[in-house]
Write a structure and sequence with these properties.
Isopropylmalate Dehydrogenase, 2 domains, 13 helices, binds nicotinamide-adenine-dinucleotide, 10-stranded mixed β-sheet, two-stranded antiparallel ribbon, 14 strands, alpha/beta, 361 residues
Length: 361
């Protein structure tokens, strides 16, 4: 098997963590007699500096011609003064829209060895394993009209969904729930918003196609609390775009660090893979970034775009073993310091590759 992978590493820690993920992907693919052909292009702030736009045409063309796209992160203080439609983040929204993926899968899981990193008590998080299915192409981030009328001192955005947009993402969430614990929680604000009333009615309709899955609805405000007080009660959580962005970041505290979490966006022309964290300007260039979220994102590339489940599990197993063996990056290094050894970004990548090599032998 050969996979044509476009790598858009982006800004800040993006290139640092992506380099480790790519090295792991190459190692694991080679071990199974597969190849990954990597093309690298610019996106985000770096592309603004070199090409005057956060998403150059040649990056977009390469993305559409690839089998999968691996993205690091975009953004940084240098570009903060730009308007929303010219900032690095605009490049991310544009590539997501062009690739067409509408279902963003964001796992949030407790890892026994990292329990001390979570501000939540271990007995609350232990065993928690949630898969967020976040609608990614609609809602407030894309809805029209949107404007900041500076003269009037007024700005507005629009949360808008069509029934078809809700049906297609709900079906993916139900299908994933069928493969997990057959329980789906749909999140909305149906007590206030018409768009949420459509969301709730549509998800309820789709549920009839999946009689083996139990559906429950939660309002987003109470869900924000319930995810922290009883995360084990949830398995697949289906949300619209904005609510999913917030709730999945909130749920990163279950794992203990934003740097641990991968994501995949599926359902469109080309799947897009990215760790959920941003460009972390506060630690960029210091080799402090945790590459494990990016490395586990690589596992999702193999699982969802290459059909290499065994190889994906190999990467996930190696990450777990590295943590079990007491290795941490600085963001995970809490608790009794004699219990672990702190590694920098590249050392952590090396440790994962060393562990993969020993698992293979
Ligand atoms: P962030 O995720 O970059 O950082 C939040 C905190 O988590 C920081 O303290 C950071 O040091 C830490 N952190 C994040 N990833 C880490 C990792 N891998 N290892 C160790 N620590 C890590 O979020 P932010 O600070 O709100 O945003 C910074 C920039 O990133 C902004 O410009 C924002 O727009 C952008 N952003 C981009 C994406 C993306 O590209 N997908 C997502 C979120 C934010």
């Amino acid at each position: 098997m050969n996979l044509n992978l476009l790598v858009v590493a982006g800004d800040g820690i993006g290139p640092e963590v992506t380099a480790e993920a790519v090295a792991v992907l190459n190692q694991v693919a080679a071990s199974g007699g597969h190849t990954i052909t990597i093309t690298e292009k610019r996106i985000g702030g770096i592309a603004i500096d070199t090409d005057g736009t956060p998403l150059p045409q040649d990056t977009l063309d390469a993305a559409l011609a690839s089998d999968a796209v691996l993205l690091g992160a975009v953004g940084g203080n240098k570009w903060n003064a730009l308007s929303p439609d010219t900032r690095p983040e605009a490049g991310l929204l544009k590539i997501r829209a062009a690739l067409g993926g509408f279902a963003n899968l964001r796992p949030a899981f407790a890892i026994k060895e990292l329990a001390v990193n979570s501000p939540l008590r271990t007995e609350v998080t232990e065993g928690a394993d949630i898969l967020f299915v976040r609608e990614l192409l609609g809602g407030l981030y894309f809805g029209q009209p949107r404007e900041w009328d500076k003269a009037k001192g007024e700005a507005w955005n629009t949360m808008r969904y069509t029934k078809d947009e809700i049906v297609r993402v709900a079906r993916i969430a139900f299908q994933l729930a069928q493969k997990r614990s057959k329980k789906l929680t749909s999140v909305d604000k149906a007590n206030v918003l018409e768009v949420s009333q459509l969301w709730r009615a549509t998800v309820t309709e789709v549920a009839a196609e999946f009689p083996d899955v139990t559906l429950e609805h939660q309002l987003v405000d109470s869900m924000a609390m319930l995810l922290m007080t009883s995360p084990r009660n949830y398995d697949v959580v289906l949300t619209e775009n904005l609510f999913g962005d917030i709730l999945s970041d909130e749920s990163a505290v279950i794992t203990g660090s934003l740097g641990m979490l991968p994501s995949a966006t599926i359902g469109g022309k080309v799947n897009l893979y990215e760790p959920i964290h941003g460009s972390a300007p506060d630690i960029a260039g210091k080799k402090l970034a945790n590459p494990l979220g990016a490395i586990m994102t690589g596992a999702l590339v193999l699982r969802h775009s290459a059909g290499l489940e065994k190889e994906a599990v190999l990467i996930e197993t190696a990450v777990r073993k590295v943590l079990e063996a007491g290795y941490r990056t600085a963001d995970l290094a809490r608790g009794n310091t004699t219990d672990f050894k702190v590694l920098n970004t590249t050392e952590m990548g090396d440790k994962v590759r060393e562990t993969i090599a020993s698992l293979l032998s």
